[in-house]
Structure formats: C-alpha cells, structure tokens
Amino acid sequence: MEHNHFFPPRDGVSLASLAAQIGAELLDASAGERVIRSVAPVYRAKQGEICYILSRRSKDELKTCEASAIVCDKALKSLIPDHIPVLLAASPATAFALAGQILFPKAMQPVSVSPTLSGVSPAAYVDPTARLEAGVLVEPMAVIGAGVEIGEGSRICAGAVIGEGVRIGRGCTISAGATLQSALVGNNVIIHNGARIGQDGFGYAPGSRGMLKIVQIGRVIIQDHVEIGANTTIDRGTMDDTVIGEGTKIDNLVQIGHNVRIGRHCGIVSQVGIAGSTKVGDGVMIGGAVGVNGHITIGDGAQIAAMSGVLSDVPPGERYGGVPARPMKDFLKDVAAALSQSESRKQKGGKND
After folding, report:
1. Out of 3.40.630.30, 3.30.70.100, 3.30.1130.10, 2.160.10.10, which CATH number does the structure's domain 125-329 have?
2. Where is the UDP-3-O-[3-hydroxymyristoyl] glucosamine N-acyltransferase non-repeat region domain (predicted)?
3. 210 vs 187: CA distance, rounded Å
4. Pick from 113, 202, 331, 350: most CB atoms within 10 A?
C-alpha cells in the first residue's frame, strides 16, 4: 500500500523514546535507535512502522511482517519472529493507541478544511451578541447564533450551525455540517460531521384529530471529553435534560432519544437506538445495532452484545445478548439448542422452518 497522503509518515521517533512514552518495555535494547515513522497492520508492516497483536489468530500474519517493532503482551511474546523487536506491554491495545497519538497527532481531531485559518473566517456569520474567547476558530460558512458562548481553543468547522444560546467549552471541535441547539457542551468535546444535537425529541399524544406534538423544552448536556460520531442524533429533553456523561464515546449513526441519561466512560457502537428516558450507567458497553427500550435502566459496567434487543432492566456488571436480551449464558444455551434442533431435522430429512 502506498503511503497515505492524507496522513503521511512523520519525521519519526526513536524506538527507545517511543517505548518510554507508551509505557512499554523494549526487550532488545540494541534496537532502541530504530526510527518509527508510522503504524500498520501486522501482515504488511514494513521498516519504520510499528504494529501490535492481541491474539494467536495473528500468527499467520507474522509471516509477512517486516515491522521495526511489535507491541504484545507476555503470553504472545514467543510468537514474534526473532528479527522483530518486541515492545512488551500489559495492555498492547492501549500502548498502540498511545503510539498512534504520538505519531499522528493531527489525526486525533477531525480534519480542518482551512488549516491555516486563524480567528473567524470572513465567509462565516457570527451574531454580534455571541461571545468567543481567544483562539476560537470559525471556518467558512459556519453560523454562530445569538448569545452563543464558545471557549478558548475551540474550532467550529465549515458549515456548522450553532443555535441561539448554545454554550461550548474550551478545546472542542464541532465538525463540518454539524448542528447544535439547546445544548451545553463541556471541554475537549469532539462532535463529528453531520451530527444533530438538541433537536426535538419524538413526542406525540394521540387524539381524535391525529397525533398532537408534545412540547420539548429540555436541553442536551454533554460533559467533558465526550466524542460523538458522524450523523449521530441526540434529542433534547422533553422537560428534563438529555445527558451524555464524561468521557463517553458514541459511534456514527446512533440515535439517542429525549431524557436519556448516559453515564461516564461508556462506549456505544454504530446504529444503536436508545429510546427516551432510559438510564445508562457508568462504563456500559453497547454493541452495534442494539435497540434499547425506553424507561429502563442499564446498570454500571453492563455489556450488551451486538444486534440485541433490550426490553427490560439490565443489572450492573452483567453481559446480555439476544432478542429479547437476556444473560449471555442463557442466550448462548438457546442458540446452541436451536442449532442442535436444526441439525437434527436435517438428519431426519425434515425442512428448516
């Protein structure tokens, strides 16, 4: 693969220095002066690149690996070819993530369309009543509404719309085409392209003349260090607030309904839908395409398998899966029983239902 001109290799950092910065042990000290310029997957890593492995399933990929170093843990150290230096780490994924941040710091934020811009572009609109601290960047075609407050070092990218009275903290990035209204945003928040924050929640009352719209007068509160993916929507509350807790990471194409409260340091994967007034605890992980019913509680540290349908409360620390979602051991038993019945019918010459 040719070098990616969007994120070209950097000047480089010595392997010894990189090991120290990511908290890994370089087993071959004589390789400490090797220069690392980029990251790569195991199977095509070349000189000047670093990669990592997490399981023995990567063993075959090592046959074509020519990396300048591999990050792994003690259990996998014996798999690494002798000619490739090992960076031993208790958590290889964390160490590799830190290495990527060091090598490609610009890739940690959405790419700017105006990398040389300082201040407010003359092609943007900023209402005279808006208050922008020092170092705020506003790119072309962005719109900043009345009474908006934006903290130092934040960037409002091309075509973003910041509605009246919205407050955005320091060090934030609001990416191209995103819209924010009725929202309070903390510090160091990243909102990716096309996200919709603070629009009406889905609330109607059936009547003799059809569906009557229920007023939605709450807010969206996004705490510090949250990241929200492209084209994700987060509805404002009906009368209370929709809250996204500190450090939570939300993937692309997620729908979060009104009055939902999500805890700290959660991970929510693409195409998840969370219905209104659900409470999600701290450290919860929700796999892709999960549907979560409204007015339920998912306890701290729970994990929900991809493609599940969560209809009722999930206790703290539990692993649930399936439709309806149930404890993982029960779900796996049900799957095994269904497969066994299907195989039995095949052997008897029956047809699958």
Report:
1. 2.160.10.10
2. 34-101
3. 43
4. 331
Q: For residues 185 and 7, what is the distance between their CA atoms, to the nearest angstrom?
A: 29
Query: What would the two tokens of residue 103 be?
Result: 């090598």
Phi-psi category of residue 188: left, alpha or beta, with phi > 0 → left and psi -120 to 50 → alpha: left
What are the phi and psi torsion angles at 140 (to 5°)?
Answer: -55, 140
Beta-bridge partners for 70: 51, 86
* 265 given a catalytic annotation: no
| Residue 8 confidence class, pLDDT cut points 50, 70, 90 | confident
Neighbours of 138 (CB within 10 A): 28
Does domain 13-108 fall under CATH 1.10.760.10? My reply is no
d(CA 265, CA 246): 6
Instruction: Give the model's pLDDT for residue 306.
Output: 97
How many angstroms separate the CA atoms of 219 and 239, rounded?
8
5, 83, 225, 258: the active-site residue: 258
Which has the minimum average pLDDT: 112-116, 296-300, 347-351? 347-351
Whole-number Å distance between alpha carbons of 224 and 234: 16
Which tokens belong to 77? 């150290």
Sketch the domain layout of the chain as residue ranges. Answer: 13-108, 125-329
Please state the three-class secondary structure of 82-107 as a single string: CCCCEEECCCHHHHHHHHHHHHCHHH
Please, are residues 39 and 99 in contact by the beta-carbon 8 Å criterion?
yes
Angstrom CA distances, 157 to 228, 261, 299, stand at 15, 27, 36
The SS3 of residue 72 is strand
Name the pLDDT band for 351 (thresholds 50, 70, 90): low
| pLDDT given at position 2 | 61
Report the 10 Å Cβ neighbour count for 339.
10
Other CB atoms within 10 Å distance of the CB of residue 348: 7
User: pLDDT of 274-287, one tens digit each?
Assistant: 999 999 999 999 99
- Residue 341 is inside which H or E element, if any? helix 328-347
